[in-house]
Design a protein that fits this description.
The protein contains eleven helices and no strands. By secondary structure, the chain is an all-alpha fold.
Length: about 210
């Protein structure tokens, strides 16, 4: 019963997030949208991505909406997400400096993880280039793990923050350009519905049946 209730609760959360996303689709050009994305991204980074079904989904959707709604200022999407990650990274650095390493490792679930061991090894062996490679890796690595790895490798905190911020914004900007190119004739809402609900496929199936 508890598993069923948990499933229902997760579905309800997803539905509520989708409602918010579809409302946000009408405000992609609003000045406050990038600020909202900064807040959502900061929260998602600070929680280590454990709220993927809610905050993580909102983060992805808001980024796509901002990018697809703007012709030239779409760069605000990558910038907002990079700032959100930077705020979280600064917070993690301060925790590490205040002898809160063990608590941070426990909170983020990084303690004893193979990801942390690999990240720490790259940071120790290659320094900035190691962190850069981890940041742009195909498999996303939480900001907390990258910061902890850099700090444990005795890297300068400013080098860690600058490396993560610059690599993040370059990576996201390239992704935004690719997104705009691949969805040239789609509105933000059409893309969200295709991505999260698969509605385009349903429409295509109906067209085929009509033929």
């Amino acid at each position: 019963v508890s598993c069923h209730q948990a499933g229902v609760a997760m579905a309800s959360i997803k539905d509520k997030c989708l409602e918010l996303v579809f409302v946000a689709c009408r405000h992609g050009n609003s000045w406050w949208m990038p600020l909202l994305l900064v807040g959502v991204c900061t929260l998602n980074s600070l929680t280590g991505g454990v709220l993927t079904m809610s905050v993580g989904m909102l983060q992805m959707a808001l980024f796509n909406i901002i990018v697809l709604s703007r012709k030239y200022s779409f760069i605000l999407g990558p910038l907002a997400m990079s700032i959100g990650s930077l705020v979280a990274a600064i917070t993690y650095v301060q925790i590490m400096k205040s002898d809160g390493a063990d608590a941070l490792l426990e909170f983020t679930g990084a303690k004893g993880s193979t990801w942390l061991e690999k990240a720490n090894g790259y940071a120790q062996d290659y320094g900035v280039l190691g962190l850069l490679g981890l940041q742009i890796a195909p498999i996303p690595i939480p900001t907390a793990v990258l910061v902890i790895a850099g700090m444990l490798a005795k890297m300068n905190e400013y080098k860690i923050l600058v490396t993560l911020f610059v690599s993040k914004i370059v990576q996201l900007t390239l992704g935004a350009v690719a997104l705009k190119y691949a969805t040239e004739n789609m509105t933000p809402e059409e893309f969200i519905r295709k991505q999260m609900l698969g509605e385009e496929e349903n429409k295509e199936d109906k067209d085929k049946k009509g033929e």
